[in-house]
């Protein structure tokens, strides 16, 4: 059995779901893997509220187990806290570097995020560009905006309009699955 680590924040953890063990997007991806009989085990390494610097600090805990695929979903909490896109980029690059150092042959998938429409201008554009640039520079797969089709849709989100509900996570999993399946 090969391990897939989903390393992220509340969007990975399944914040606000009745049962994150069955409704979060890592759990839904596991269901797709099981349906195809693929030899992979999904590990949910999501931590609500985590930033890229927090992720970097807790990374070693997760690297102390055999990993074959690493799905990186961090960055949106940096924006919420006003952390510069440059710092976010540097922290994500450091995470990628440490993962590749520990597991040189690991397959990686970058989960891209876009800034909500209420944050205008160059800041939003610079933030959006981080994920594609990191994917290109490091030659890793990328889902450009993994909340595409979910963000801003009240019927797919919790009341806070920041976190998907169970239906929203199903849309996310369906969006992510083709890119992840190609890696497997």
UniProtKB/TrEMBL annotation:
UniProt-listed Pfam families: Lipase_GDSL_2
InterPro entries per record: Ester_Hydrolysis_Enzymes (IPR051532), Lipase_GDSL_AS (IPR008265), SGNH_hydro (IPR013830), SGNH_hydro_sf (IPR036514)
Record-annotated SGNH hydrolase-type esterase domain positions: 6-171
PANTHER family listed in its UniProt record: THIOESTERASE 1/PROTEASE 1/LYSOPHOSPHOLIPASE L1 (PTHR30383), THIOESTERASE 1_PROTEASE 1_LYSOPHOSPHOLIPASE L1 (PTHR30383:SF24)
Name this polypeptide is given: Arylesterase
């Amino acid at each position: 059995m090969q391990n897939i680590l989903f390393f992220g924040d509340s969007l990975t953890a399944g914040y606000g779901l009745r049962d994150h063990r069955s409704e979060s997007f890592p759990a839904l991806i596991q269901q797709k893997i099981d349906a195809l009989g693929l030899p992979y085990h999904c590990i949910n390494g999501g931590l609500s509220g985590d930033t890229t610097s927090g992720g970097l600090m807790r990374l070693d805990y997760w690297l102390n187990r055999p990993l074959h695929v690493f799905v990186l979903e961090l960055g949106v909490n940096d924006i919420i806290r006003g952390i510069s896109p440059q710092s976010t980029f540097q922290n994500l690059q450091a995470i990628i570097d440490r993962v590749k150092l520990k597991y040189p042959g690991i397959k990686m998938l970058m989960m891209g995020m876009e800034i909500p429409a209420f944050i205008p201008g160059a800041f939003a554009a610079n933030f959006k560009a981080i994920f594609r640039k990191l994917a290109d520079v490091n030659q890793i797969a990328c889902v450009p905006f993994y909340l595409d089709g979910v963000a801003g849709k009240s019927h797919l989100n919790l009341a806070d309009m920041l976190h998907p509900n169970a239906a929203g996570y199903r849309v996310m999993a369906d969006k992510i699955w083709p890119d992840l399946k190609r890696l497997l």
